């Protein structure tokens, strides 16, 4: 195994892998030698195009897209079972799927609250539950959960999202303590502001203000996050667990 291939021969499952941070994780995991199953929700065409591109670029590896609504336990259970079926071995789960529905709490509709909690937090249960035991039984593996600076600090207009992502951090720390003795690590990555469709929706004046809170005055890239995620998913990070690592360019909120 060389430095360039820390995930050589590993099996990795990524939710929300069709675009943004998830797609960068899928891409890098394949570059680092993994076989990958990734989930998408509404973007079937985009997911298939990504899988075709990456399968062609990495002929020895497998890259499989599967549709899943991570907020739905039955759907997530089917996704997990199919993912395990498609992989020769399973070593790492990246819980990345997420949505925002930004609005002031006073104006928040029940649907907005439930969509945000369902996709960002319920998914920690629905997806991790069926995929944890295989890691525990083989006594090795990694779970990497994508949280957010919003969950660490609280951001106005994001009460549901901050609550969900803070929940992801608590879930991560507790689960790390439950499965540490079985050789399984559980960590959270908390991105700040990253250039994806999620942040493209931020109005320009607000984006400029947010950039003024970042020492380098720029949003991060999905690749910045993917490198940390793939490191935590690899054996290299075997002695890191129960952490929430912020990757935010020094953002102060
Ligand atoms: N971008 C940022 O600045 C930032 C900052 C902090 C944290 N994060 C977190 O990082 C993660 C990725 O964010 P991103 O910016 O890359 O988001 P994105 O570009 O909006 O992509 C979201 C991904 O999640 C999938 N998804 C959405 N709802 C789903 C559902 N119900 N079931 C399954 N998959 C679903 C989407 O699939 P389809 O496209 O197929 O629907 C897509 O692949 C999220 O957890 C987000 O909260 C992002």
Automatic annotation (TrEMBL):
MF terms (GO), sorted A to Z: oxidoreductase activity
Task: List the SUPFAM superfamilies hit by this protein, alphabetically.
Answer: NAD(P)-binding Rossmann-fold domains
Gene Ontology biological-process entries: monocarboxylic acid metabolic process
Query: Which residue ranges does UniProt annotate as crossing the membrane?
Result: none
The protein's matches in Pfam families, at most eight in alphabetical order, are given as: adh_short_C2
What residue ranges carry the coiled-coil annotation?
A: none
Q: Which SMART domains match?
A: PKS_KR
Keywords of this entry = Oxidoreductase
The answer to whether the entry has keyword Amino-acid biosynthesis is no
Q: Which residues form the Ketoreductase domain?
A: 10-197
Which family does the entry's similarity section mention? Answer: Belongs to the short-chain dehydrogenases/reductases (SDR) family.
Q: What is this protein called?
A: Ketoreductase domain-containing protein
Organism classification, top ranks? Bacteria, Bacillati, Actinomycetota, Actinomycetes, Kitasatosporales
């Amino acid at each position: 195994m060389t430095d360039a291939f820390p995930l050589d021969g590993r099996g990795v499952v990524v939710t929300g892998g069709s675009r943004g941070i998830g797609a960068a994780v899928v891409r890098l995991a394949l570059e680092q030698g993994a076989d990958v199953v990734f989930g998408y929700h509404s973007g079937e065409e985009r997911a298939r195009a990504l899988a075709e591109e990456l399968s062609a670029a990495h002929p020895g590896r497998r890259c499989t897209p599967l549709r899943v609504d991570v907020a739905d336990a039955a759907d997530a259970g089917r996704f997990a079972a199919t993912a395990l079926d498609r992989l020769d071995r399973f070593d790492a789960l990246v819980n990345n799927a997420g949505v925002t529905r930004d609005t002031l709490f006073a104006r928040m509709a029940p649907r907005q609250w439930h969509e945000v909690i369902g996709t960002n937090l319920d998914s920690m249960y629905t997806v991790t539950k069926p995929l944890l035991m295989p890691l525990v039984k083989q006594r090795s593996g990694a779970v990497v959960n994508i949280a957010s600076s919003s969950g660490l600090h609280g951001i106005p207009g994001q009460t549901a999202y901050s609550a969900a992502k803070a929940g992801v951090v608590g879930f991560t720390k507790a689960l790390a303590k439950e499965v540490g003795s079985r050789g399984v690590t559980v960590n959270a990555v908390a991105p700040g502001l990253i250039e994806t469709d999620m942040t493209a929706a931020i109005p320009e004046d607000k984006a400029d203000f947010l950039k003024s809170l970042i020492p380098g005055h720029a949003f991060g890239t999905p690749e910045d996050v993917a490198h940390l995620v793939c490191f935590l998913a690899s054996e290299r990070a075997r002695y890191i667990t129960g952490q929430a690592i912020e990757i935010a360019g020094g953002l102060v909120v």
